[in-house]
Design a protein that fits this description.
It comes from Bradyrhizobium yuanmingense. The protein has 325 residues and is an all-alpha fold. It contains 14 helices and four strands. It has helices at 3-8, 18-40, 47-72, 80-98, 101-124, 130-149, 159-166, 174-192, 194-204, 206-211, 216-242, 254-263, 275-294, 302-324, and strands at 154-155, 168-169, 172-173, 244-245.
Length: 325
Amino acid sequence: MTDITKGAMAPPRSFLSQDAVQLFYRLLAAFLICAVLAVLSDSFLSLGNILNVLRQASLTFFIASGLTLVVLTAGLDLSVGANVALSACLAGTVIHKTGSPALGILTGLACGGIVGLINGVMVTALRIPSFIATYGMLWVLNGLTYWYMAGETLHGFPAGFRQIGSGYLFGLPIPVYLLLVFLGIGTFFAQRTVWGQEIYAIGANPVAARLSGIPVARRLLLVYAVSGTMAGLASIIFLSRLNSAEADIGESLTLPAIAAVLIGGTSLFGGVGTVFGTFIGALILTLVLNGMNLLAVSANWQPLVTGVIVILAVWLDMKTRRRAQ
């Protein structure tokens, strides 16, 4: 086996690696944030608030989990928020027209997956950088959604459908169960399957990956399709949670999803990171915003704090990579 092949197909990643150390630090950060908030606010440790944090973290995770695979290939999907909006509006329309939540769910998932697949085609077949391709797609989707909705709002969905985003099972919000399912699936796929290892290899060195026989284009199509499908899933959760859909539903979702990925330790340079880390990143981001709300900090400061956290996460990533070289 050549050195190139060895570089492309690294041994299966395990939690006895640098990833484990990074995850430990992030878990420690989450614990410290919880400790500080517990001291500063009597409401933080209430059951209602804890469940609310878990629910909000799960909503961010659904979008960020698929995005993690894209970033692992050194790509970026800036269209996820707009994808959520269009998928939610189409799903809501189908539910209203047919009275079938099942058809609406399939519509949302299909719309999200198709958008992701188109992104993948632009990146692989048209050789458009992912940043430009998905940024352009963001505007296309925004335009389509605003045209389609024409200023209208869809609301009033069946009670059974609303349980997906608002219901509880054995005292836990249903989105938390979905989070656990997809966290397990995503972690197993990325860490324990050949396809997952190939995605890491592409992010680490796409040229070496191609020379070692990895079908780079097909794997990139896969990760963008998965990212889009997870955005479609998120659209269903948001639709059932809010019980309404309008054209601007996804405008505030893209940056928090990217922030969760970066805070969780996935490198923008590709090849480093875990889906579990993204969950921790979503949890940290949610804890910070929840704490600011409990402490009555003006909402105007929340974007600033989020931006600072993201900058620090990227800076720490770059510093860690330099030390590892």
